[in-house]
Amino acid sequence: MQHLSSYRHNQIKGITISFQILLLGYGEMGHALEFLLKNRHRIDIWEKFPQPEFTSAILTNSAPHADIAFFCLPVNPHREVARQIAPLLKDSCLCVSIAKGLDESGKTAAQIFAENLPAQQPYALLYGPMIAEEIRAGRDAFAQVGCRDRASFEKLSMCFRHTALYLEHTFDIPGISWSVILKNVYAMAFGIADELQLGDNMRGYLAVAALRELNQIALSMGGQPGSPYHLAGLGDLITTATSENSHHHELGRKLARGETDDITGEGPHTLAMIKQHRPFDAMQYPLFQLIDTIIQQPHDVRGKIKAYLELGRGDIICRA
Fold it and tell me: Which residue numbers are catalytic?
């Protein structure tokens, strides 16, 4: 991994570079990216369901001029929006997704881009510890840029120059995709443990067990060995699993209390899509299975965790 100070080493000194940016979606991350980029770039914002006081850009007018199009959307609308703008984009426009889930066909954002954008169209994934509220508060954020060519990374690096978002490049698109998708599942276990007051030792164990399974799954899905130990995996897992403002941490707390209303989000949806489409054998991953069992049957959660540990699951429990 490169040191953070070297992430932007390809900037052209003394030259101000301004891009035409198209933000697709104006939710929390759309607002966060606008905050980061508004002082240096020209920005158009498209929102399918705009608030009354907001005037959305028109795609047929904005898309042809875009240098970078950020998909600030959940993964499910990606296919529709990609197909809608693909004929409008210039060949050099870089499409960037921040979506951390699977769509209803079980596909990642990268797979959707590969299937629905022209073969020559560059695309990238932007994944890591990037809590929108912290970005808008001016705090630092960190991300891996997964892309097939170095030029796309350099373009994003120039885009975020002099902002509080620090970037690292990787070619390992499958590895970071599955790391960031599955960390939302494992993050719920931390909320469960915190609600049950299982202690810091349990939190440390969960981090090791989750990363071990993440690494095995990412490898089975075509990722590189150790892929989850970087920003899109370990970095984002710690952020999501320990932040009191994290949606998935709160979902874990609700499950520990036996509450079943509104257990929704990328983590539960990922579990449902994996069960439906079976991209890998989930039965091989005991902690993953435990979380799924608790979502399906959120009663006696403490007992389920105890039984999991007593069985020595995860291969890292050593009993005297």
Answer: 183
